[in-house]
Amino acid sequence: MFISSQTSPPSFKDYTLVMPAVAVGNVGQLAVDLIVSTLNMSRVGFLHTDCLIPMAGNNPYATCKEDAEELHTAGEVYTTAELKLAVLQIRAPILQTKSKKFRQLLVSWIKTSGFSRTVVLSSSHAYQRDDQQLQGTPLRYLITPSLLKVSADALKELGWKEMERVPAYPGLTDTNTEPRLCIPGGGIAKGLYTDSCAEDLPLAVLLLFCSEGDNIPDAFALVNHLNDWLHMLDSHSPEPNKWKIPSSWNLLFGSGIPPALY
Amino acid sequence: MATFFGEVLSVYSRAVEEDDEDLEENEEDEQIRRELEEKREVQLHWSPEVSDSLRSGNKLQCSDFILAVGYNAASFLSAYVLSSSNWDKVGHSSVWNERSRALSDQSSEESACVFYRHKDNPSVLMCQVTCYIAEDQLFQWAEKVFDCLQHRGLNVTVLSDCSVADYKTADYLCGSSAPFLRSLHTSAFSNQHVCQSLEQPNIVTGLSAAVLNHCQVHHIAAVVYQCYSDVIGPDSVTMETYKPALTKLGRSIQLDTSPSTDVLRKVIRTTDIQSNLYI
Q1: Per-10-residue mean pLDDT for chain B, 279 residues long?
Q2: Which residues span the membrane (chain B) (predicted)?
């Protein structure tokens, strides 16, 4: 599971963990990329598991030629001590048959590491919103009772909108069926949330309704939203676009085009 | 999603499909799932001599492990290295998955992933992989194979095929630039480079990535040489691209620098049979 890349294993005691759910438009993963690259976080270990499809590449956050050659893998953990922040980046899809096992692994790792709270960044299909979800902001949150106890005031101040429960059978007003939580395309976010509720884990899910496409604006929306709560960056900074786009984001739409075209 | 002309298309999403796995699963389903999982397990079959030593707790002494993934890489080894007949077949691995043929004959299955050992220098191990290993089997393959090898002083070299269509670059690639080689190595690897390092945002996937990941977390020196080629199927020009990667290992491997055309022809002919449909 977690394998430290340093000689002494890192301590995550009282750290906040931010992690993505591989979901629509990869918004959570893009947002995490922005956090790692902007805060210049250092890698402390790998998430080495058979639940993720293997992939490898050179440093996705390279800033110069010297630090470009460094192997990075599908699951990695980054930290910054000043903010007491740890970030888990997942760069590959989770094997569908192993998503349950992956959730269990994550929950037990979060528990043993002693994170004070966990924030899961996710997204959900915009086209599957119901009438009430269509109105207002596309951002939603979910929070487990154990985190609500300590963060109720902060949440009230933020004025965020909670993810609506939808009726099990839309259109039918049957009082017997309870409205249920539904995050279409949200990956493991829903499962992690329900697992954490059952295990009394302090966890929150931040999500955004979006569609597949150029999801960079969505990633900025989500990371700014998260920043309102965690204050990773000074929100009063004069520059409007203070997040640093990592070098691995270039060529998102493929290679250069043949000059002979013009 | 409906298009302008009204036909309904299913929308492709990179997200993991929402499945109702929380629904109660009956016992029969569970049993089928378990049996499928067992069947998909990676099997290693070693020669009696090797399996005896493994059983007694002695891992394979290995200084160099060369892994060729894909037809070009495997054919390169066949033509340039294995032709010297200084190699013993010591085992093979078999995988069963959705692309395995239902009625595949024993011999083709055995030749899809073969391990060879050098006769004079038994610490040099080589493996040719031409079969498809499914995404859920990659991790396991790397675990199982490396579990049989002695880790101390181990150097891993992976040669891997890739299509140039998967290569991203800001400049337009003109036809003459392919085939070319790119490398990616673990932090324990310290040898000098024979080619350019793989540029972001390009990545390595499949078996080479599984091997790199395994080596990275276990501090094994490993390097992947990925050859980007614009030809489908093995061809001699693409194969030649791998030459610099192995000449570096000169001390342990004798590279037959100019294989006879007969050898090359034999390697290439195997794929010709399928492509003569329109002749």
Answers
A1: 64 55 70 88 88 86 90 86 83 85 64 87 89 90 91 90 87 75 90 85 92 93 91 81 80 70 70 59
A2: none
Whether residue A225 is predicted with pLDDT greater than 60 in this model: the reply is yes
Helix segments in A96-245, DSSP class H = 99-113, 131-134, 145-158, 189-199, 216-230
User: For chain B, what is the domain count?
Assistant: 1
Q: Compute the average pLDDT of residues A119-132.
A: 90
- Residue spans of beta strands (DSSP E) within chain B: 43-46, 64-69, 87-94, 113-118, 124-129, 155-163, 180-185, 203-205, 221-229
- Identify whether B2 is part of a domain: no
Enter the tokens of residue A119.
């924030």
Q: Tell me what ipTM this predicted complex has.
A: 0.88
Closest chain B residue by Cα to residue A93: B16
**Cβ contacts of B213 on chain A, cutoff 8 Å:** 46, 48, 54, 56, 73-74
Q: What angle do CA B208, A31, A51 make, to 5 degrees?
A: 40
Whole-angstrom distance, CA of residue A199 vs CA of residue A111: 9
Asked if residue B184 belongs to a domain, the reply is: yes
Print the domain residue range for B228. Answer: 36-270
Q: Which of residues 114-173 of A touch B (CB under 8 A)?
A: 123, 125
Whether residue A251 and residue B12 make contact (CB cut-off 8 A), yes or no, is: no
- Residue of chain B nearest A49, judged by CA positions: B139
Q: How far, rounded to the nearest angstrom, does the alpha carbon of residue B28 sit from its chain's CA centroid?
A: 36
